[in-house]
Amino acid sequence: MSQFLRRIISLPIQSIRSFHSFDDVTPAKYISTHLKNGLGSRYVCQLQRLTIQVCKEFRTSYGTREWIANDLMNFARQHPYVVVYVQPRRHRAPNLIGEYLSGDRQWIPLSNCDRQQINWWVHSLLTQQGDPQWRLLKQMHTDSPSIQGIWTPFTNKPNDLITRTYPDKDLIEMEYPQMTATQQIQELFEQQKTNKTT
Amino acid sequence: MFIRTIPKFVPDNIHHDKEVQPLYNKVNNLVKDKYQNRLFAVIQIGNEQRKVTTEDIICKGDEFHPTIGDRIRFEKVLLVGSSDFTIIGRPILDRNFVRVEGIVIEKTLSQTQMDYWYAPRKKKVGQRHFLWRDPLTMIRITNIEILEPIPGTNQSNS
Amino acid sequence: MVRLLRYGTIFGPLKDRWRYLYKNDLYKRRIEAGPEPERFRSSLINWNYDAELYACTHRFGEKMNIESLRNAMTDASFLNQITKQRTEAGLAATDQTTLSFTHNEELAKRGEEIAENFLRRALQFWYPKFPKEGIDAVMEFLISESTIADISLKLGFKTLIRCDGPSPRPKMLKNALFAFIGAVDENNDRSRAELFVSDFILTHLVGKDINEIWHIKNPMGLLTKVLEENGRQAPESRLIWATGVSSVLSTYIVGVYSNKEFLGKSAGATISIAEEMAARDALRRLFETDEKRASIPFDKLYKHGLLIDK
Lengths: 198, 158, 310
Fold this sequence. Notes:
Mean pLDDT of chain A: 87
GO biological process, one term (chain A): mitochondrial translation
Radius of gyration of chain B: 23 Å
Distance between the termini of chain A: 81 Å
Distance between the termini of chain B: 23 Å
Protein name (chain A): Large ribosomal subunit protein mL43
Order of helices and strands of chain A: HHEEHHEEEHEEHH
Mean pLDDT of chain B: 83
Main location (chain A): mitochondrion
Oligomer: heterotrimer
Keywords (chain A): Mitochondrion, Ribonucleoprotein, Ribosomal protein
CATH class of one domain in chain A: Alpha Beta
Structural class of chain A: alpha/beta
Structural class of chain B: mainly beta
Low-confidence stretches of chain B: none
InterPro entries (chain A): Ribosomal_mL43 (IPR039927), Ribosomal_mL43/mS25/NADH_DH (IPR007741), Thioredoxin-like_sf (IPR036249)
Strand content of chain A: 15-25%
Number of strands of chain A: 7
Largest sheet of chain A: 4 strands, mixed
CATH topology of one domain in chain A: Glutaredoxin
Radius of gyration of chain A: 35 Å
Number of helices of chain B: 1
Helix content of chain A: 25-40%
């Protein structure tokens, strides 16, 4: 249900569009991070610099202008590790360009987005790693897949199978937990015999 | 070695508890070891159960409130084990017994997905296409540790 | 998938022939012009070096003077280039008084010393039974130019380094990272610099097997040597299981024992391969570096007992 709602109340189509053809299959990969981020005592935000290209006059960048006027200073103060550039360009569409530590670059067109949507996209770029669009092949990544050992046909197999001489009596004989049907019939048969004789 | 954490107050299990006590002690000594073995755990996250060890990444495929750099403690731990033992909770392990921690490393979007709808009879509303991208959250497991001896044994406080 | 054009639409050279010819011509010209030359990131409009340095100090959570960071990011080739330009302009070549900064060679040496010292201590602390040659091999891998340059690249120093070319060479990247560690040591204390090393260089071992980084040529010989040193008997290998002996997919499992005491076992396609792998497994178990060993606690090395002055 939530997914269905998300489809209807969606973000502007220019921002969501993908830059590969829909005729081809989206390129796929496994989950990966740069430099095992998050493992040590500190976390490094991967967004290095953010460039906002905006027009001062056109209607298409009204939301961008609003965001710059109200939220930009707060954002820069909260995230001092991101360098923010505002680049005014006359009579062109507003854009958002994020450059990441790994050298990757993300570009998002912001035409006709309102202030809330722009805030959403800025934070989306902030929390990303900078990779292009991928299809995830697996929902997890691990370096040590099995701690208790991978199962083989020989695990937990008793070692004394080697030392025995075959055919072995112990292995042939079976211990039944309760009386079997044949044994019951045999017993009944013997009882009948004894009854007849008495 | 499969061990169940049995609370002390169950009267039926006292006899059984005595039999298993040496096994408990063995595991408690293993846990105390300075160069301890690698631990793994089964945690529950958003109606999904996942087997994790330290240093691995799990992906949560829905909206998630914490932002990047936030450290999380997973409270629903169903199972913890190492190469020599496995401790199973019923259904979850005690909060003071085991600690599993993670850090949110990335919040991204999935690839652009498309849904296309077409009705040949109607005009104007005859075709619609929806584009959307699902939010994804990557969490790295940083720490799994056993804090105290197994609850319900001689060595434990409770 | 979605049909974007209706059937019967003409597109290509038959519709708007002038447009087709024009685009074709543009394409040919672009191919003739060749690839775009690599440019400095600082040559673009959106560039403020001071702001970048300020952000860099906050990114790693280090409180340091921006001037010392500027020195750490200045390569020797950059200074050479400036003096060259000055001589061409007719100024005195040795007039260094006007330059407020120096290059990062000394800081890099200082940082490299710290890194080497700390990495060796950390590895010896966490793998106490691993022999010295092995630790040397792991150290060589960690300190090597390719590894350090890769780390430096992923930390975003590529655009911050000031050098004579638009893209810094691996040696410059390596110098910059070590100079950064030196600068952290200069501004803060030693433990902070060592924490940086453990966070970004030591974590490069995650997902890699240190037994594979140190390549052992003759595992059985090494095993006998190690057992002799410990005063134990020489290893004996025994066949435990074998299946599919006469088939293509034959499997042998060989165990290694010393005085009837189990050391290790492994599978192989032939007996000799299985024996060698079993010896490797035994070594792994003896050195306590096998898969079930806990990983290095990168942020808690000090808490576990690795002291600063030792």
